[in-house]
Design goal:
alpha+beta; four-stranded antiparallel beta sheet; 9 strands
Length: 200
């Protein structure tokens, strides 16, 4: 009986010694290597996130311009894009929030109930700035007439830039440009100050 108990204990101790798993040293080395890899990858991952936010903001502006043009043609009346502070009327000069609305009487102001706000776009990503070109900031609006052509004040062209101060200057700016009726996006070498784009 005692011999059987001794054999059982010997087998159990052998099993414990040969059990698979990490030693404390192996675990510490693994955690240290993982910490180094995370430290090296974190800046690239942050740049990827901020770059995606920048592209998303530019795409939101493109979508707003395309909706305005299509609705102007469909309704047979002017459709306007302007900065807004409340999502219901044109106000201020900050293009980080803008509305798209039908402008039946052509006065470039929301006159309910005949005018309808079609879109309310807010660009709020951290570190993001929205900067209009001179013609856009000077007029305070972009208008599409019933024939689908754009007017920026008395001009046919203008641009709105989005830039991120969380990206390297060489790729921190996207210019959303409207020329006559064509909308395009270009990447520009910007600066931390987020300079205004050219009108053309």
């Amino acid at each position: 009986m005692a011999l059987a108990g001794t054999v059982g204990r010997t087998r159990a101790s052998r099993w414990r010694r040969g059990a698979p798993g990490f030693t404390m040293v192996e675990l510490m080395v693994t955690v240290a290597v993982l910490a180094i890899l995370v430290t090296l990858a974190a800046p690239s991952f942050a740049n990827l996130i901020n770059s995606n936010r920048l592209v998303g903001a530019a795409n939101d502006i493109v979508a707003a311009l395309q909706v305005a043009r299509m609705e102007a043609i469909r309704r047979g009346q002017s459709v306007v894009i302007c900065p807004s502070t409340d999502g219901a009327s044109c106000a201020g000069a900050n293009w980080s929030r803008m509305i798209v609305f039908s402008d039946r009487n052509g006065n470039r102001a929301v006159n309910a109930p005949q005018d309808v706000v079609l879109r309310d776009i807010t660009l709020t990503a951290a570190g993001m700035q929205v900067v209009p070109s001179n013609s856009v900031s000077g007029s305070g609006w972009i208008r599409f007439s019933a024939d689908g052509l754009a007017w920026v004040g008395a001009n046919r062209s203008g641009a709105i830039s989005v830039c991120s101060d969380r990206l390297p200057d060489a790729r921190n700016t996207r210019d959303v440009r409207i020329v006559t009726s064509r909308v395009s996006v270009t990447t520009r070498n910007g600066s931390a100050a987020c300079t205004a784009p050219s009108d053309n």
